[in-house]
Amino acid sequence: MNLKFFNSFNKVPWFSLGLAVIFFLAAALRFWGLTRFNALIFDEIYYAKFGVNYLDQVPFFDAHPPLGKYIIAFAIWLSKPFVNQQANGYTGMVLSPFNYRWLNALIGSLLPLVVAGIAYQLSHRQSYALIAAFFVVADGLLLVESRYALINIYLVFFGFLAHWLFLLALSRRECQRGVLLAASGLCLGASAAVKWNGLGFLLGIYLLWMSARGLYLLRRLISGREKNQNLKKPGFIAPLENLTQLNLLHVLFYFAVIPALTYSLIWIPHLQINTDYGFLEVHEKIFNFHKEMKNGAEVHPYCSAWYTWPLTLRPMVYLFEKARNTLEPVPTYPPLPEGVGKVIYDVHAMGNPALWWFSSGAIALLLLVLCERFIVAIAAAITSASRQLIRFPISVQTWLIFYLVVNYAANWLPWIKVTRCTFIYLYMSASIFSFLALAWLVERWLNSYHPFHYAIAITIIFLISLSFVFFLPVYLGLPLSQHEFNIRMWLRSWI
After folding, report:
1. Model pTM?
2. CA–CA separation, 91 vs 99, rounded Å?
3. Number of structural domains, the chain?
4. Which of 191, 312, 334, 456 is deepest in the core (most CB within 10 A)?
5. Which residues contact 280 (CB under 8 A, 6 or more apart)?
6. What is the pLDDT of residues 172-215, one digit of tens each?
7. Domain span at 289
8. 3-state DSSP call for residue 297?
């Protein structure tokens, strides 16, 4: 009887079941109360209106490429005949908030599955994929950004989808590989066509390929061998080891020509409506807009420097309203006089503090590990004068660490040179690579025979979950008393 039960237990598709639970949890958090605020929240005053402008063929200028607004326009067009509750005319068209928010919520619900796919391709460990997906669900900034008609979630989704397809391609044979690489290049172009900082995903792939080719050429120079296939070990081979099979022509075609072509074609509908500027002129206008923007609180009260983002020191308030009671509609028009409202509705675009702090520590730790392995390899080569200066193929773990550190840096460090006012949501792409770093450490500790490591992993998961539940009211905009609001504002810079 026990043997039968054990065999039945093993036949349960736990990985698929776990991914399904994560997806439905993410969807529930994003779709529940989606129409609570019957208004335009934060940059919805631009993007939801721009979506309607596309549908009505009304010219306008925006400081970002058009794909994000196309998607919002598509969401409105597709859902408008079916949703009529809580209608408002703030966009210039009579719509329910559900019309311009639902597709953001759906894409945000799918993002954890894409991240799980990346984690699995890097390691072939199902537990690592599930933990990484859970961390994405447990982040507050990703939750907030996918509950309103904003465009950052599309940039992140296309970028990580591109990387998943890229990793899948590296583990496939030539015919399948070409199709997947082309799809990856298309998604990279789409990410940049939402906002230019989507190019960070492309930069990460360039850096990975150049590093892999450099190691390969160095190995050939030292060993004098033409091929290294005989050095490969049996078992799972990191897909990144196959980067050396991509030559310069592959990289130029799949990761330059296809993204550039995709990006250019996406502009066609916009330019047909907005005829005042051609393709080059509109890019010059966008560039000058960002170049001329100043920095500081006088530009925007929530400007934040790049180095403050990993510790979520300066989040953003997307909505702050007061009501006399929980039955009163929010927002109220006209606003209540000062001191009258007793119930606070607050939407804070901020990361889960425990998740972000642990993740920042994790990516720093992986950087130290990577540096240590490089120094040891160089020292061994110097002391032994060995021809095995760089062991190739590199271990799966080293490739995984290298992939996460490089892509984290590619999506975060370019902001050092930006002088205009910047905001914490620009860190979203880099933050997910740090979540993957933390998930990798936690998964290793969970499978450790050392009780202390296991206890650390359980404690981290517990604290991240507890932090998410504690801050959930300011992610979802649930009613709070003044005291309940105050105990969630741990730092003065959060207000």
Report:
1. 0.92
2. 11
3. 1
4. 191
5. none
6. 887 789 999 999 999 999 999 999 999 999 999 999 999 888 87
7. 14-494
8. coil
